[in-house]
Amino acid sequence: MTNPRKKPSFRRQDSNAYARLKESWRRPRGIHSKVRIKEDSRIIMPSIGYGAPKVSKYLHPSGYREVIVSSVKDLEKINREKEAVKIAHVVGKKKRSEILKKIEELKIKILNP
What residue spans define the domains of the chain? Predict the structure, then answer.
């Protein structure tokens, strides 16, 4: 039996029949589509019931909430116990090194060192 907490793989209709169709989900729109009608033993369609629990939404796999930082000033607002820092990709070498020094000083978790 499959794990009830794990989401099923939502595959595109007929992706197994044609090589030109990728497996990534696309909503079936045909008027005779058995998947759209949600007929038994067909491909499962995504619905709101498959959503993650509210407690674990928007969390990094490490369990921290991600906060994107682009300056040293942004680090002052970080809650060390619940949030982890991700340095913005637009930050240059010079400012990145300053941010990294401040992160070490404050002992904050960093996701992209």
Answer: 9-51, 54-106
